[in-house]
Write a structure and sequence with these properties.
The protein is α+β, with helices and mostly antiparallel strands and about 300 residues long. The chain contains nine helices and eight strands. Helix 1 crosses helix 9, helix 3 crosses helix 9 and helix 4 packs antiparallel against helix 5.
Length: about 300
Amino acid sequence: MKSDTEKVYRERILSVLIHIQRNLDRPLELEELSRIAYFSPFHFHRIFRGIVGESVKEHIRRLRLERAVLQLRATDRSILDIALDAGYETHESFTRAFRAMFGASPAEIRRDRRAVLIAGRLSGVCYTGEWVPVFNPVRGGGVQMKVRIEKVNPMRVAFMRHIGPYIECGETWSTFCAWAGPKGLLRQGVKVLGISHDDPEVTPADKLRYDACITVDESFKPEGEIGVQEVRGGEYAVTTHKGPYKKLIETYSALFGKWAPSSGRIVSQAPCFEMYLNDPMKTPPAELLTDIYVPLDPRR
């Protein structure tokens, strides 16, 4: 079962890679790519990043720049036309991105017809004109983790919503806790969790939705900007992230890209959530502990 699941994940991501390669000249939308992969839009980017080793956006940008190298070396098209094909609106922005990736300007590559290193990142996928798919899912290294399956009961939570970059949700937590403390809601045994509703690879940073949550009983009623919702119950894959919150993305990538394909389980379309196990105001960032909960489809 595990090998079958891994094979399915690999085949689905490969179909997306082929589609991207064949359609570099047009916008590639999340819904389109996730539909080709038969993954939910909610989780598609995390699965892609974990398996391929880079985000969808990074992958598309890199292939377009690699294609630009071949065009500079093999054609006499203007640099501006090649820049526009690569998705850049100006010669200057194209040159900055090109130099950052290849260590030389487009004009230098054209003048010298020099070769540049195209490594294909971790997956080995690169643009070579008439492209034969070679795809090596990321294996080993990176985040090491222990994953357990937990049956979670539905949780009723009070929450305060943050709109904006996830890294800036600290002020929302401060306001939320300052409100909850005097009401006795931060009692011993309360669970403190966060729900990220959007993918920062897709949603603009100023539109990202995050809910700061604490568990409450049935007697609690919504109050002003403090709402109530239920976190769904069921089976979850759970792993503990140790370290600063800004590195949670690495653990998510390992969960979705390494553990999930080899687990024999399918990730469901419900949101993930994070359970915060110690106080960031009293704990050094390197010692912070966060349990990441990934919902699983009951079908095996």
